[in-house]
Amino acid sequence: MSNSPRLDALALAGDLPGVLLDARRLAASAPGFHGRRRAGQGEDFWQYRDHSPEDGARLVDWRRSARGDRYFVREREREAAQTAWFWIDPETGFNWSSDAKTPTKLRRARTLALALATLLARGGERVGVLGHAPRRGANAVDRLALDLAAPVTDAQAPEHACLIFFSDFYAPTETWRQRLGAAAASGASGALVAIADPAEEIFPYRGRTLFQAPGAKMEALVGRAESAREEYSARLQQHRRAIRELGARAGFETMQYRTDHSPAPALALLSALVAERRG
Fold first, then answer.
1. Which residue has the higher pLDDT, 150 or 187?
2. Beta-bridge partner residues of 222
3. 107: which of 13, 18, 103, 229 fits an S-S bond (Cβ 3.0–4.6 Å)?
4. Greatest alpha-carbon span in the chain
């Protein structure tokens, strides 16, 4: 075993450099996310405003006021940075694609998470992975990528956290009822990003087909796969409705994304959801 947790994380990440590059390109094409700016205690200059009698002489910015016949007060921006927390499904089945030309669900989840984190970090916000320390500053996204490569199945959500779950949400509804219930109990809310492979939605299989669960010793041989398409679709929609309802009751809005679609609209929608949650 490596003595460096950083090297261990890099080994787990595999395609980390490519994912980071994809995320930066995606974020570069998206509108920026701006932190909540308001006057208060802080270090950064925000704006000048007119002096009022209750300010007293001590708050007058004499250098700026000397330029004219009005008195000005120099205001600083209040430090109101918050933390957006990420959770990405660690199950083996999430790291799967039906076609080598289509990214795996895991890769697309990491790309979206890191692109959103890039926008948030630009706005002065902190970003973190559940089970790891939050990050802020110029290297926050690079360090976040390493944390995403060492996922935690379940971790306590901080109080009143803005939390984004990335998953295919194929785990039993009871698993998600407990997971989201625990998050809601701490006051957390946010978004559920449900990521699907196109084959999981259109079910293109025909004839005698052997279905195997990725990373598990589960398989089913179906003589005429097309005959199962209608029932499969009905069960999938029923399960998705159940997840959406669980999310809504816990304060999480659900958005659906398919890996053969452009990630740009998904990032824009996710950014809007997070901005609304944190507004």
1. 187
2. 209
3. 103
4. 89
Query: What value does the mean pLDDT of the chain take?
Result: 84
Assess whether pLDDT exceeds 90 at residue 55: no
pLDDT on residue 54? 73
Give CATH 3.40.50 domain extents, the chain. Answer: 5-35+80-278
Assess contact for 236 and 1: CB atoms under 8 A: no
Rg (CA), the chain: 23
Instruction: Check: CB of residue 77 under 8 Å from CB of residue 34.
Output: no
Please give the helix or strand (H or E) that residue 110 lies within, else none: helix 105-122
* Token pair belonging to 194: 């449900």
What the block records as the tokens of 233 is 């679709």
Q: What is the torsional sign of CA 109, 114, 117, 122?
A: negative
What is residue 220's predicted lDDT score, i.e. its pLDDT?
83
Q: For residue 158, which of 139, 140, 178, 185 has the smallest C-alpha distance? A: 185
CA angle 200, 15, 214 (to 5 degrees): 35
Whether pTM exceeds 0.70: yes
CA distance 62 to 55: 13
Q: What is the DSSP letter of 207?
A: S
* Cα dihedral 124, 7, 26, 131 in deg (nearest 10): -50
C-beta atoms surrounding 122 within 10 Å: 15
Polymer length in residues for the chain: 279
pLDDT digits (tens, 9 = 90+) for 157-193: 889 999 999 999 999 999 999 999 999 999 999 999 9
Q: Is the pLDDT of residue 75 over 90?
A: no
Q: How far is CA 126 from CA 77, 86, 143, 151, 164, in A?
A: 17, 11, 12, 18, 14
CB atoms within 10 A of CB 250: 20
Classified by CATH at the fold level, domain 5-35+80-278 comes out as: Rossmann fold (3.40.50)
